[in-house]
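Our working data are protein records whose layout never changes between entries. An example says more than a description, so a record of this kind follows.
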Amino acid sequence: MEKSVEKVVAREGISQVAEIALANGLELTSDQLQQLTLYAAMLIETNQQINLISRQDEGNVFTRHILHSLTLAMPSVTGRTIEKGLSVLDLGTGGGLPGIPLAIVRADLKFTLCDSIKKKVIAVRSMIDELGIRNARAVTSRAEELRRTERKTVYDAVVTRAVASVADLAKWTTGLLKPGSTIYALKGGDLTEELHRAKRLQVIKNITALPLKLEGYTAFAEDEKELVIIDLN
């Protein structure tokens, strides 16, 4: 693992993420930075056997994946804060994104990382264990199956990265979320038609699409990345 860590640090470095996060109101501790660095190395190493992220993105794992995930923990970006003690579902977590970075910086929240592909969940479980993250678990399931298998579990929020349309996210999480809960979806591209269709759903109270603009970092804005916040009835 040491060679992988050296590879990640040499190609990009965690310091850029720390500086950008601080400029946007998120101060990362030395322990958190160490965990994020180890996670980046594990993600790249595991990616050699299991397709978790694009191979072309390995050199940009800190910005395109970890920093992207951490924007959900920046109130200056989201305009709101997930309250302490709440239960959060990471739907379609893949290689643990955005759930693992968020669990590292928000130890006060309880995360369930869900994906339908078993080998990815096994890899994520291994990462969670090795990182010593106590406020996260990983499960193999589709959203509709999760409603049946965890009938007593009702989540306060959902976080997700480019998993599905807004309408599908709202439908899939019906029965998994408490009334008045929120879905935070990191997305990109032209969302005009997608949002128009979603607004017709009765389960959705309000949809807000925010350009992902960070102080000291322009790539997300240039790539037209957005954060879609879906407030449910």
About this structure: The chain has a mean pLDDT of 92. Residues 30-46 form the longest helix (17 residues). The CA atoms of residues 115 and 205 lie 26 Å apart.
